[in-house]
Amino acid sequence: MTSARISAISAEITNDPEGLGYAGMPDAEVARVMNAIDPVSPRTVFQSVHIGLIHQTIDNMVDANGIPVWVYVEAAQGAQDATGIAARAALRLRNARADYPDVRVDSPIFQAQLGVLVSAGLLTQAQSDVITALGAIPVSRAGELGLGPVHHLEIAEARRG
């Protein structure tokens, strides 16, 4: 157990920023709570997504009439506005080679481009949410803090200071 890890655990249980009630819990309960993934509203962290997974997901998206969304994106690529820019960016991703770097679907630029495609009616909000969810990984509070699983003995050590 590194001192930095114990310090991070100590700060979490002392400050209790999420209001989880650590102060009134025994060490084993604190560890259980910190390691639990909430099935109703899980915390998430984002990881980069391989371009192939994005392609596959969007390739399966259609509008209410069964028309693939790529038809609309391709039609919009010539526009000289934000929609055209977002459509061209989407097409560049679609046509990227398999060794293209993984994509951070939670990045502000990627999210802005999805927002433009939704605003233009080329994607639905639900479709945009599906694309974003590709990178979302549910984690525990300990995982969210970058600690990985914590043990009750680490809780005890952190409390001892």
Radius of gyration: 21 Å
What general form does the structure show?
elongated
Query: Biggest sheet, strands in spatial order?
Result: 1-2
- What is the beta-strand fraction? under 5%
The helix/strand order is HHEHHHHHEHH
Largest sheet: 2 strands, antiparallel
Low-confidence stretches: none
Helix tally?
9
Descriptive account of the structure:
The protein has helices spanning 3-15, 27-35, 51-59, 69-76, 82-94, 108-119, 125-133, 141-144, 152-160; strands at 43-46, 136-139. The chain starts with a helix and ends with a helix. The chain has 161 residues and is mostly helical. Helix 2 (27-35) crosses helix 9 (152-160) and helix 5 (82-94) packs across helix 6 (108-119). The longest helix has 13 residues, at 3-15. Strands 1-2 form a two-stranded antiparallel sheet.
How do the helices and strands line up, and which of them pair or pack?
Layout: H1 3-15, H2 27-35, E1 43-46, H3 51-59, H4 69-76, H5 82-94, H6 108-119, H7 125-133, E2 136-139, H8 141-144, H9 152-160
Antiparallel strand pairs: 1-2
Helix pairs in contact: 1-9, 2-9, 4-5, 5-6
